[in-house]
Amino acid sequence: MIVSKKFSELKRVFEILLSPDGCGWDRKQTHESLIKYLKEETREFEKAVKTKNFENMEEELGDILLQVMFHSQIAKKQKKFTIDDVIDTLTKKLKRRHPHVFGNKKVKSVREIIVNWNKIKKSEKKNGN
């Protein structure tokens, strides 16, 4: 699969930041210590959306992506999962939950799409997905 140069560079930046020669503060972070930052960035994005400030929306989405990358790099160091695993899991989930797009499910309304999404989600939770 082709990965953009910019995304590859971002992944490399996080590998460096959390390496022994990287940033001391970054290396000390844990999933737990970063939760407050993820919440803060989400609130800031919400504010940008409500005020229709697209410049801030772009910046805050970057900050949310920073959190996703940070958590993924921590997990990679712990040999739990990688950002590639996160992307793969999300891609599979989106395809599963959109059978009207990626399968042969016929729907007649947005309401039906939402009902189907919730059924699939409930089924996934039962099956441990």
Uncertain runs are: none
Distinct helical segment count? 7
User: What class, by secondary structure content?
Assistant: mainly alpha
Our Rg estimate from Cα atoms comes to: 18 Å
Q: How much helix, percentage-wise, in residues?
A: over 70%
* CATH-defined superfamily of the domain at 5-81: MazG-like
CATH first level of the domain at 5-81: Mainly Alpha
Q: Based on the structure given, which CATH architecture of the domain at 5-81 is correct?
A: Orthogonal Bundle
Morphology call: globular
Number of strands: 0
Rounded mean pLDDT is 94
Gap between N and C termini: 24 Å
Biggest sheet details = none
What CATH calls the topology of the domain at 5-81 is: Helix Hairpins
Order of helices and strands: HHHHHHH
Instruction: Please indicate the percent range of residues in DSSP E strands (runs of 2 or more).
Output: under 5%
Explained architecture:
By secondary structure, the chain is an all-alpha fold. The chain has a domain at 5-81: Orthogonal Bundle (Helix Hairpins), CATH 1.10.287.1080. The chain is 75% helix and 0% strand. It contains 7 helices and no strands. Helix 3 runs antiparallel to helix 4. The mean pLDDT is 94.
Brief description of this entry?
By secondary structure, this protein is an all-alpha fold. The chain is built from 7 helices and no strands. It has a domain at 5-81: MazG-like (Helix Hairpins).
